[in-house]
Specification:
55% strand, SH3 type barrels, 185 residues, OB fold (Dihydrolipoamide Acetyltransferase, E2P), 3 domains
């Protein structure tokens, strides 16, 4: 058991028969009444995000999530195949359960697979990935003065806003939590 006063971003807990990951939390101490913790939680089984308020000092069960380092191999119909680099065991995850993560996955990329009591919950991506620009409007000399952005389609199909000086074929560092441009690779 863990106190809600000890919440931190990324912590996994068991609440209401679900496995939840803390995305955001805020300790609130109103002038009148008892203190409480306002949190934003993501269900690791469904991907749903829910806001939940706990009384200060309330206890919740900590979920022990195991992260296994695996390599993304290929898509097989509606499933995606991952391989453990140490044991060479392969698992298949349905596309529906990793829909958001597929926008960042390339073949042979190493990721962490989250498991809870032998149940596969999903894919944990690295903080940043390097992807190539497949399509974007060409930059025009002088456009950089305004500091504007334009849409760029990356090799995985993800569309992000990039500065005007980015061209087709450039390799970019992309933030996976916000799906945003960081810099050139």
């Amino acid at each position: 058991m863990i106190s809600v006063n000890d919440f931190r971003t990324g912590l996994t807990i068991e609440v209401d028969n679900g496995i939840w990951q803390v995305i955001e939390f805020q300790h609130v101490k109103p002038g009148k009444g008892a203190a409480f913790v306002r949190s934003k939680l993501r269900n690791l089984r469904t991907g749903a995000i829910q806001e939940k308020t706990f009384r200060a000092g309330e206890k919740v069960s900590k979920a022990h999530i195991e992260n296994r380092k695996m390599q993304y191999l290929y898509a097989s119909g509606d499933n995606h195949v991952f391989m453990d680099n140490e044991t060479y065991d392969q698992i298949e995850l349905p596309a529906a359960s990793i829909e958001r993560e597929l926008k960042f996955l390339k073949e042979n990329m190493e990721v962490h697979i989250m498991t809870f009591q032998s149940e596969t919950l999903g894919v944990e991506l690295p903080n940043t990935v390097v992807l190539e620009v497949k399509e974007t409007e060409p930059g025009i000399k002088g456009d950089t003065a305004s500091g504007g952005t334009k849409p760029a389609t990356l090799e995985t199909g993800l569309i992000v806003q990039v500065p005007f000086f980015i061209n087709q074929g450039d390799r970019l560092i992309i933030n996976t939590t916000e799906a945003s441009y960081v810099s050139r690779a």
